[in-house]
Write a structure and sequence with these properties.
This protein has helices spanning 2-17, 23-45, 48-68, 95-104, 191-204, 220-238, 253-270, and strands at residues 75-76, 82-83, 108-117, 120-129, 134-143, 146-157, 162-166, 180-184, 212-213, 241-245, 248-251. The chain is of the alpha+beta class. The protein has 2 domains: 2-68, no CATH class; 80-249, no CATH class. The strands form 2 sheets. Strands 2, 3, 4, 5, 6, 7, 8 and 9 form an 8-stranded mixed β-sheet that branches. A 3-stranded antiparallel β-sheet has the order 1-11-10.
């Protein structure tokens, strides 16, 4: 009876803490759930190993999703980006505001492109800042009922390095090629803040404007296509994905473990 009261009380405390907007009480709430799970496992089995197993089960939940759904997915080896019209305001209400933020920093819109595959839809608004040889893209990724909006900024060095800063909130689902430096800034709440972080990253790596190259505004879409193809090729060579026939690939078991590790990192980050 005492164990039941502890479990219920700790879980209730966790629920209450999770209602706060500040990240600290929310993380304490997640910790309370783990404590309640540990006590429940200990009470049911009578051994500490049972409590540890109950806590570990939270981190195994993503693995179930990966094995039952993700491993069965077939994705295209080549993402053929094509010009497309922007989504409706209902589907992408932030597009106008984000475009305005980029334009206020001197970026000019060069193309609207996209890619569709089964339930997946991607829209990209490609923008360019000629003086700094910098590319910026507004992304809308849609799958089923989930939509993710983010912005990326890319600079290309003469030595082949590609520096990309992004406020994409989740971990990447593929490994980046060796020449690609991904700088995640999920806390950047404006394009100006993201741009400042990107410039700081370039300075940190001693990359000045004279060290940069660009395909020009007219070649950005083709370069973006080449970047996507390079990423797929790199992950094939790393064994994270394998060809599945008919121009598609799927995640290997090694790739599934990589995905699971990425999802666990996100669970800890967003707890």
């Amino acid at each position: 009876m005492n164990s039941l009261l502890i479990i219920v009380g700790t879980a209730a405390l966790g629920y209450a803490l999770r209602t706060f907007a500040h990240p600290l009480p929310r993380k304490l709430g997640a910790l309370s759930y783990l404590v309640a799970s540990y006590v429940a496992g200990l009470s049911l089995t009578g051994v500490h190993a049972g409590g540890v197993a109950a806590v570990a089960s939270w981190f195994l939940l993503p693995w179930v999703e990966i094995v039952l759904r993700v491993r069965r997915l077939r994705l295209p080896l080549e993402k053929s980006l094509r010009h497309r019209f922007p989504p409706s305001r209902q589907d992408f209400p932030q597009l106008t505001e984000l475009t305005g933020e980029l334009e206020s920093e001197g970026f000019e819109q060069t193309d609207d492109a996209g890619f569709d595959w089964q339930e997946m839809r991607q829209f990209l608004r490609v923008c360019y800042h000629a003086p700094s040889k910098t590319q910026a893209i507004i992304h809308l990724n849609q799958q089923s009922n989930l939509s993710v909006v983010f912005v990326s900024i890319t600079s290309r060095a003469l030595d082949g390095r590609i520096i990309t800063s992004s406020n994409y909130p989740f971990s990447w689902t593929m490994q980046a090629p060796p020449n690609l430096v991904l700088h995640r800034v999920p806390g950047a709440d404006s394009f100006a803040a993201l741009l400042a972080e990107h410039r700081a990253m370039l300075a940190e790596r001693s990359i000045g404007e004279n060290d940069l190259t660009t395909p020009g505004a007219e070649g950005l879409a083709e370069q973006l296509q080449a970047d996507l193809d390079q990423q797929v090729t790199h992950n094939l060579l790393r064994g994270l994905i394998v060809k599945a026939g008919e121009g598609t690939f799927r995640y290997s078991w090694r790739g599934c473990f990589y995905l699971w590790a990425q999802l666990v990192k996100d669970m800890v980050r967003f707890a």
